[in-house]
Structure formats: C-alpha cells, structure tokens
C-alpha cells in the first residue's frame, strides 16, 4: 500500500508530502490544487508506460507545468508586507514526483532539456534522476536502482552494484526500458504495480457518450477509462462479482438493472416501479448513467492495487451521495482508494477515510493543519 505521496514544483504543488491510507479523500475549494494531486498520480503511473514525458508535453512542456512562484516565500510575502518577487535559484530546475510504500518506493525527477539544434522535440523534458528503493526510507542500504542522467546502476543478486551497459535515453523511464523479470525483478514488480493503477476522471454521460453506445458483448471485468462497454461491464459484475443488485436498489429503490444481449450487442436499461417496460439507456438521465458507471467501476471483479477517482460526485443528484459513498467504502476493502472531491457531503459520508484538506497560501497549495513536523519523512535523491 502507498504510504506517502511527494510532489515538488508541479503547478501549485511547490512542496507537498502527504500520508496516504487505505481510503484517502482529498478535498478543498476550487483552485486549491486537487486536480494537480490527481494529475501527479497519473504522471507516476505513466512513467511505467513510458508516457510521463509525453504527458508533460501535452500540458505545454515542463516550463508550463513548473511552479511559477518564487523559489522561497518569505514570511513577509505571506503576510503581504513584501512584494512577491523572484529569488536566486540555489538548485537546478526540477519537477519531482515520488511515493513510498510498504514494499517498493520510487521517485523521478524531470529537468529542462539541453538546448540542441538536432531535435524538434523541444517541449520534451529530460529525466534527470530516478530511484527505486525497498521499504519506506531512502538510504544507501535500501537503494536498489539508481539512474543519474544516462547512467543506470542496479543491485545484482549478491547486492553489489552493477552499471548497466545500455545508457538511458533522456525521455525514457527505467521502468519502461529496464524492467525484466529475470535481470531486474524489483523494477519489473514496480512497473507491474504502477500499470495496475486505475484512474477515472469525468466520465461522459451525454447523448453521444461511449457509455450509451451498443457494444459487442464480451466479458468486461474492468470498465474502460472512457466508460465504454458499460452494459458488458455491468453484466460481468452481475455474473462474476457481488453487490450489483443491492447497489441499484440502494440508489433507486425498487428498481432493477436489465441487460439485453441479443444479436451479440449489449444494451442496458432500468426497470422502475410503476413502469410497463424498462427504460433504455438512451432514456436514462445523465445522473443515472453516471451512477451506473460508478457501480461498474467500483464493483469490478478485478480490483486494482490503487483506484483513483476524480470528482465522482459530478452530475449526481445529492440523494445519490450516500449510495456512492457506500460503493467507495466497499471498494476500499479490496483496493487502496484515493478520492479527489470538492463535495463536503461526500467526504463526510466517508467517516473512516483519512482526509487531506487543501488550501492556497500565496499561490502555493498547502495542507490545512499540517506543519513541517507533521509531514511524513521523505528524502529526494540528489542529482
């Protein structure tokens, strides 16, 4: 289980080190950095697929995603007694992401590319440092893999350092380039763990949404990130999982889900009390479709190691908040769950969750009630 998330210089997250639990809720007003926390987790997952650099490029390049404020914020700046102004840099420009877990921990540092007239990929940041270590604390004795620039070294079977003969490319993570179950089992295990993480963000429910389309009826134990194959995913939960009918009845008392699989194309509807026929997917409201999407995602017969939900309350009627919270709490018995939400009602409906409440101070995201001594222990590898 992830115990700590650390982010430095990513958008408004100048310095963020927070503890994570089996169920963590990230709250705060609009613009306080909740989406940046969500995106930072996605970037960590994309590193395992070799997509973190391209992900940053899609956001406008490293220069657009870096913390835009001063390197040091004085007390006078925070109190408004001094103007906000730049300070002399004492360290290289860097965006850092990392996490600590019970088993394997990881960090990655992105820096500005070296100017060159030999490439047009000027928005691509370069990976400067990567580290993988065992357990929570980064120490010389726990370090398993270390990448500095193009040089990569790993522990061999005896625990001795071995320099890899293949030099790392500046845009490729060691997780995507060097993971091999025979020669680098720790890297392979970490990569597979990151690839198992699952993210759901603003699932569409409009008339043309993938969730409303007829799709071939194949077993779908994992709801796709765009919400497609919803009918097949719901039927898979019904046949291979548990709790589907109870979740429907909890949200829509007396109603039941109907899945039509004729001609190999699946559609779904909702049979409601007093109706002579089931309402087809095209007739259901956006809020109803969205709740059914969360049923399919949260009751997945193939639960992930980590499940991250971004504002799952969007488009839901307030009366569906408690049923959604019960689904989330149930999912947290099978997966570690992180919920990013601006809904106080949803957060309050998850009383057993640890809560991270974000606020803005002089443009910087801070954790309400967290002092320097309250942060989890964290050390960034040196460049």
TrEMBL record:
<dbReference type="Pfam" id="PF13304">
    <property type="entry name" value="AAA_21"/>
</dbReference>
<feature type="domain" description="ATPase AAA-type core">
    <location>
        <begin position="23"/>
        <end position="347"/>
    </location>
</feature>
<keyword id="KW-0227">DNA damage</keyword>
<dbReference type="InterPro" id="IPR014555">
    <property type="entry name" value="RecF-like"/>
</dbReference>
<dbReference type="InterPro" id="IPR003959">
    <property type="entry name" value="ATPase_AAA_core"/>
</dbReference>
<protein>
    <submittedName>
        <fullName>ATPase</fullName>
    </submittedName>
</protein>
<keyword id="KW-0742">SOS response</keyword>
<dbReference type="InterPro" id="IPR027417">
    <property type="entry name" value="P-loop_NTPase"/>
</dbReference>
